[in-house]
């Protein structure tokens, strides 16, 4: 019985030595209680406590088992300096993951990768003063607020995932995920929630946490998530009477300044999680840190470390350039792509583009949850591939020359295609796969023959020779031929006349709808009757962006034109 009592005391000492001191809102004896029946402040108690703490330390050391580097390593083991350190299951949650400092070399590599070797104080200030926080305005309560000019690429991507959860998985947000809990099924989630204005703060925070977790695990190839935190007072967030968590963190960050890799080395700590459940719980526990002024930068660092710095550099076409671009400190396309698809590639087309001589450019390699559209495509500067244009959910990060924002639909069926549209998508995807011009819209003769074989198009010899006469094939000319080619030959022309592909422009469509006498008409008695006139088609840069995804889209709005700059 005495041995059992000692074991219990020892277990208590281990727990006390591994957990922070309790808050002292009550007298110490009320909080700490007694050990083995001895009063808290007695000399015997203090001596006994020291003995137990020393024994606890020895027992913790004994739980670390060192084995040969060649021994198999299980899920609960870590490699460290050529040895394998096995953790014990009884440790608190925060000790179940590897929490460590970066080395000086890692910190320097990370800092230079993000900001370059010469970065202005203005850019550093932009990235060190942007939290991940929701708007306090009821009309935009589901939106994240941007204060600084640089981190919009990070915020917009997180925002896109947050909208996915708020709109399509609102019922899931009230549940705590179990094992592999951040992944969600698309079954029975086609009906979105429209009651956005009544979202509670708890629901929004859960959406934010799940979004962050999903992105980080995507960066970690769905095997791990690295969470970057700060070694500052208030990192382990505690509630004090009359003081909010935000105030505790803000006060702790007052004197913090990140101007070099050395500053980063002093305060940055990273935790590696292989369980989505524990990662979710940890993110939720320290969410005030991500809502603080360091939040956007910490999340970017988390994503980069989840991917791995070496893999990030191998993803990129030019790893010598900083990820945050000068002179304005914008997030590069590589950052946005990393958060969207888990790889820091610089391009938005599908697959890889072979430049010859063993050189190639890397694009998007897989389907994505939320997509991407850009105004630059309408200006023929790039070509967004089908992976980003047709994401799983109808939500897109939208890029312009200087800003990122988000476009979304409440109805997933906006991506549905009829037979002719599906055929158009199939042909265009095959054409783009052969386009080595970076989205210029032309392919080689050899690539063209591959396209018509893959899509089962049977062109008459005269049309084939005409298209190939210039030595390359332009998409617009090829597409016109397809529109005039009978369906039996693989084209889109329906000889029965029952299905005619839409060839009109949006302006022509509106003219047809309004008709020549849209302003007024007469009934059979000759009296004038009012005819409702459709609103005229409106134009803004966003419209050009939308039409890169839906070429025949007609856009209208009330008030000022929507801005994407």
TrEMBL record:
InterPro entries linked to this entry: MINDY-3/4_CD, MINY3/4, UIM_dom
GO MF annotation, one: K48-linked deubiquitinase activity
Comp. bias intervals (Basic and acidic residues): 21-31
Positions with biased composition (Acidic residues): 1-11
Ranges where the record places region Disordered: 1-48
Domain Deubiquitinating enzyme MINDY-3/4 conserved: from-to ranges: 111-477
A biological process from GO: proteolysis
Pfam family, one: MINDY-3_4_CD
UniProt-listed PANTHER family: UBIQUITIN CARBOXYL-TERMINAL HYDROLASE MINDY-4-RELATED (PTHR12473:SF8)
Family, as annotated: Belongs to the MINDY deubiquitinase family. FAM188 subfamily.
Protein name: Deubiquitinating enzyme MINDY-3/4 conserved domain-containing protein
